[in-house]
Amino acid sequence: MEDLQKLLLHDHGLSVSTLPEKGRCLFTTREYSPGEIILSQEPYVSVPNKTPVKSRCDWCFTSSNVKRCSSCQVVWYCGSKCQTSDWKVHRLECQLLAKLEKNRIKSLTPSIRLMVKLYLRRKLQNEKVIPTSVTDNYNLVKDLVSHISEVEEMQLVLYAQMASLVNIILQWSTLNIKEIAENFSKLACNAHTICDSELIPLGTGLYPIVSIINHSCSPNSVLVFEGRIATVRAMQTIPKGSEVLISYIETAGSTMTRQKALKDQYFFICSCPRCIKLGEHDDIEESAILEGYRCKNHTCNGFLLRDIESKGFKCQKCGVVREKEEIVKIASEEKTMSNKASVALSSCHNKEALDMYLMVEKLQVKLCHSFSINLMRTRETLLKILMELQDWKKALTYCRLTIPVYERVYPKFHPLRGLQYYTCGKLEWLLGYTDEAIKSLTQAVDVLRITHGTNTSFMKDLIAKLEEAKAEASYKLSSMDD
Ligand SMILES: C[S@@+](CC[C@H](N)C(=O)[O-])C[C@H]1O[C@@H](n2cnc3c(N)ncnc32)[C@H](O)[C@@H]1O
């Protein structure tokens, strides 16, 4: 830990402290500017997601030109460079996988593979086959919190079953099932989902230094991935002596929803500036808007709260009461239709799914406030389906409908907000709405240059698109002048 402290201080302007209510925390020892990299780390171990449609390279997560390892037939690589980088660990994993029965191979989950790789890497570092460094050693994994004493009985049983499977795969006499189970608990509250630049999940990785960073629902930093490398960037000016904070969860929900997600997975009650407002008037209003019902009076945008007298829901702006029975009826129709729609979508019946999601949207418009998170999610799904069906005009309509909600629920420099402006800009550009495209792409660049930096090919593409749109607009203008 002393070496780590020295390195963090010297190379990064950071220091680790321990607070009784949070455990380890990462603090800045200098000021960070918006967009500046605070920390970058390679994973101790990582593994791609398992999907029936897209195999990914086990090292860099790309899905292009991947080939199966000829020996184990389980793991994929995009080329010899990635295969060589992963070889020391995979050589051992490969022998183990080749010995497994077909049924066991089929049931191998990414979590099991991640744990097997964790033990293999620890072994290879112990034997000095893989070098260790201050930021790359198993002691950092040992230091991670597990919350094992707080884990529910059912979950413990599951961890024990998973640990037995790891034991069967590794077949080491010295393995301790309890320790493996505890490591599964560590993964649950420390591992990160590796995403691409558009925040599409690709896999899971354990980044023990990044894992020192605590959570806030109103964070000052953001975690993004460039391939397998995790990068934490400042989203705002972070003064010297501040705690570096990222968000572990989807921050768009109400305070109760966020707190439940944090308690269930990370075992703490958040006391960030947003969470301490729980139960205050503004917080109740925001929750009712995001997750509650709309006013019966269609010209009113008030929010509804339970009304003890009428047993219904009363608009806090115009006073009109919505009967509970009416709400229950629409909510149950909406739930049935949502379930059917999601089945159609997961079976890739896009046209059928589109019609069903349009019905869900109709019901949610009747039921929910216009800033409702559920309605926003339905519109995001409709946008995705319409893009798949290449109905660009309707896709743009839906993208535009989500923007005001994004602007309300995400802070200015949230990557999801930047990505939604980008989608809007791309659709506008495709449809020939050059001026609108310039506006949306500029908004996207303004946000994403902070969250993603400017060096990635993703950002270079975005900046090039904006330049192209600007060039076309000035060409149009000059030909009008002629
Ligand atoms: C990824 S770890 C973060 C580092 C951790 N503090 C440590 O000591 O290793 C996640 C755990 O940190 C704690 N934690 C993170 N954010 C917190 C917060 N805002 N308030 C209290 N505890 C927090 C919780 O115990 C959570 O399960």
UniProtKB/TrEMBL annotation:
The keyword rRNA-binding does not apply. One of its GO terms (cellular component) is nucleus. Residues 12-249 form the SET domain. The keyword Zinc applies. It holds the Pfam family zf-MYND. Keywords: Metal-binding, Zinc, Zinc-finger. InterPro entries: H3K4_H4K5_MeTrfase, SET_dom, SET_dom_sf, TPR-like_helical_dom_sf, Znf_MYND. GO terms for molecular function: zinc ion binding. Residues 57-94 form the MYND-type domain. This is Histone-lysine N-methyltransferase ASHR1. It comes from Lactuca saligna.
